[in-house]
Design a protein that fits this description.
heterodimer; A: alpha+beta; Rossmann fold; OB fold (Dihydrolipoamide Acetyltransferase, E2P); 2 domains; 6-stranded mixed sheet; 5-stranded antiparallel sheet; elongated; B: mainly alpha; MetI-like fold; globular
Chain lengths: ~350, ~280
Amino acid sequence: MSIEVQHISKCFGAFQALHDVSLRVEEGELMALLGPSGSGKTSLLRIIAGLDSPEAHPDAKVMMNNENMIHTRAGNRKVGFVFQHYALFRHMTVFDNIAFGMRMRPKKERPSKKEMKDRVEQLLNLIQLENMGNRYPMQLSGGQRQRVALARALAIEPKVLLLDEPFGALDARVREDLRKWLRRLHKEIQITSLFVTHDQEEALELADRIVVMNEGRIEQIGTPDEVFHQPRTEFVMQFLGSVNLFHGRIERGEAVFGPWKVPGLLGKCPEGTAARLFVRPYDITVQPDQQEYEGTIAFIRRIQSAGPHVKMELEPESGERVIVEISHERHATLKPRVGEKVLVSLRNARVFTEDYTI
Amino acid sequence: MKKTGSQNHFLPGFGLSLGFTLVYLSLLVLVPLSLLSFRALSLDGTLYRDIFQDPRTLAAFKLTFASSFIAAGLNLIFGFIVAWTLVRFPFPGCSFIDALIDLPFALPTAVSGIALTSLYVRSGMVGRYLDIFGIQVAFAPLGVVVALSFISLPFVIRSLQPALKDIEREYEEAAISLGASPISVFFAVIFPAIRPALLTGFSLAFARALGEYGSVVFISGNMPMKTEIISLLIAGRMEQFDYDGATALAAVTLLASFMILLSIHLIQWHYSRKIQPRS
């Protein structure tokens, strides 16, 4: 079932959490709502689930399969909701937690005891907790509890699955395992899913498409590749991955940022417009200070080689310091030393001005 | 034992604090109660037989336990409503109401007894309207229930409040999103979570009501066979220097309330055992 929201705004007192947000999740898609805390992503998710209501607006819509559900009660929306802190019922066994949704159905639609048992066992299989049905939530680890919460949401045979920071409360190792597992699970059951996260890595790895949100507005919607490689706004560029930022202005058709110049802006931008240059640390080429190479002269101030890449801090003759990431292989051939002079050039710089992007 | 204590905690003084706890509890609780038990055990058996054969004493037992039970039960229901309102719907002035709840603790019970009596007698502010419907509160068993409800009111509310605050919105939202109706959310999710607090509040209120003396003696009228409570009978025997009779009566009351409180705790243990991790 597809989800579509239109013209959704939400205020909490004087604070506006959502500004006229519209969004569509296609059937079977796994979509991420990515943004810092306070960006409105959880509010949007809760409004889709029916746990919160949006501000009144004549065109405000929460559509599921092209049917407006904005006035439908949360319990009737056929939505499975997974909470960040699991919200498992402490006094119920894992089995009873999962069966809860089925037991709450009106008598006519309620499955028989046998059907219920089969369904719960099937779900326990799915979450790989086959023999844990009679345990209590307190006896499970964080990762296990979150899987039970997911099974409980799936037990009502929802048409869409909404997950609020599903891995937020877990430690790094468990989070990674669970991420892979959820990706596989989604492939298997193909349910339209929308999850909230502030972890860009999680969004890039899991989602088919990512919605990047900031201050209650959508900054960009796109595949992980699109938002990562073609960020449409400065916020997206900065939020997804580390980045070097320089401030400068347009001079004679070139964007000038201290020692760095980006040409090709002639006639596109008025002279003197303030501009900002963004470049990712691995999009910077470092060459030895020899005649055959070109680039800006810089001095190496720091080298940190522990980690997947070698990080270097370079100081150009004039201007701000730059963080550079090179591979260990390159590090071995270049053999850089602190204090050494090198030649630096930018490969994939992006310039943002007030209303223009290259 | 002392070693493990000082190894695992930053603050020292396990031995000292345990010693203090034992001495304090012994002086205040253990010694008086064991003296009562020793004395009760050394009494002539006929004294106990008399208790169970004397219709006046039996009537007092019945009234005491029944009215305490009803008072605790009333507080369970209405105390829940008050606690729920205070926790869930903070309104202007709700901290003032919150402070009012402790008043029955602070007020001398005789004062509250007299105040309640003057309200509920036939000519009193409330009593005159109840009289129209033929309901008599003061100088009737109902008055005992009213007085006991008053003095045991704080217990249920005070034990419920933290438990209600502990229930996170997420639990209710989870239940709602799973299709539960508001009524099932209450009975399937909220009630089991506050059941231990309800039981604690009930047993505290019940225990407090059983031992009440000051407020009841004024409102009940102390009519033999009708509105006499056990504490009054015990006090009466003391006044006549019948210490043995008073002891026997106290011992029977103590045993009965002990059995009741024990069974409440067993129920509580039965439920709480399930949600604790087996470590």
